[in-house]
UniProtKB/TrEMBL annotation:
SUPFAM superfamilies listed in its UniProt record: DHS-like NAD/FAD-binding domain
PANTHER family (alphabetical): NAD-DEPENDENT PROTEIN DEACYLASE SIRTUIN-5, MITOCHONDRIAL-RELATED
Domain Deacetylase sirtuin-type per the UniProt entry, residue ranges: 1-151
Active site residues per record: 26
Superkingdom to which the source organism belongs: Bacteria
Keywords: Metal-binding, NAD, Transferase, Zinc
Pfam families registered for this protein in UniProt: SIR2
EC number per UniProt: 2.3.1.286
UniProt-recorded name of the protein: protein acetyllysine N-acetyltransferase
């Protein structure tokens, strides 16, 4: 059973697919934050008249993390906790070149967690993995796994 998802994606697709514990390291396009008071709004606020402004008058922008900005502390803390509790850590479709996401597989291995890396191309972390699947589409691999698990 999946206990949590750590993602660099900002699109909210994991939540739309029904995943509950999703830790978005690079923020989300589905939430806006005021640059003045940090109040949060759903992205549909942009559709309202004057939807780019907070009640305080500050400018609203998506909570996506831009280059050089700090990652959301809460997401990083939860992600760290999930790695600590994991029995199996699966990397799907990441080159593992962006920090801090590229540290999580190493942290998992230090905790004696089984590591699986599925990526179309090899990564620098493949040597740490218990299983590496390259040159395959993630969707194909996941469909095969699901077929084996379901019957």
């Amino acid at each position: 059973m999946i206990q949590g998802i750590i993602t660099q994606n900002v699109d909210g697709f994991h939540q739309r697919a029904g995943s509950k514990k999703v830790y978005e390291l690079h923020g989300s396009i589905n939430q806006l934050a005021c640059l003045s008071c940090n109040r949060k709004y759903p992205s549909k606020k942009y559709l309202e008249e004057d939807g780019s402004f907070c009640e305080c008058g500050g400018f609203l922008r998506p909570t996506v993390v831009l280059f050089g900005e700090e990652l959301p502390k809460e997401a990083v803390q939860h992600a760290d906790g999930e790695v600590e509790k994991a029995d199996l850590f699966i990397v799907l479709g990441s080159s593992l070149q962006v920090s801090p996401a590229n540290y999580y597989p190493i942290k998992a291995k230090k905790n004696r967690v089984k590591l699986v890396i599925v990526n179309i191309e090899p990564t620098e972390m493949d040597g740490y993995a218990d299983l590496v699947i390259n040159n395959r589409k993630i969707g194909d691999v996941l469909q095969e796994v699901n077929k084996e698990l379901v019957g």
